[in-house]
Amino acid sequence: MESSWGSFNAERGWYVCVQQPEEAEAEELSPLLSNELHRQRSPGVSFGLSVFNLMNAIMGSGILGLAYVMANTGVFGFSFLLLTVALLASYSVHLLLSMCIQTAYLGP
Predict the structure, then answer these.
(1) DSSP 44-68
(2) What is the pTM (predicted TM-score) of this model?
(3) So where are the chain's domains?
């Protein structure tokens, strides 16, 4: 049985891919990743948006953990822990702002 170039007889259920030699050479020479994204100016993400995204992820996981803490400590223990953590967070923000004032760094 004689077959022309590019045709192939395969068993049923098998997938066969046949390419012309020119197509295979062109595919081998093309880069896997193109530099087109680097050439085009993308708008990018600002620092503030990155910080917001990070805070959103941290607070989201913290809020999911609140129900577990309340179930294990009870209402009064949970209220005490929540108040303690809120006071510590407030004090840490106070320290950060006071250091910004002392170093006279007001931002970019």
Answers:
(1) ---HHHHHHHHHHHHHHHHHHHHHH
(2) 0.44
(3) 21-39+47-103
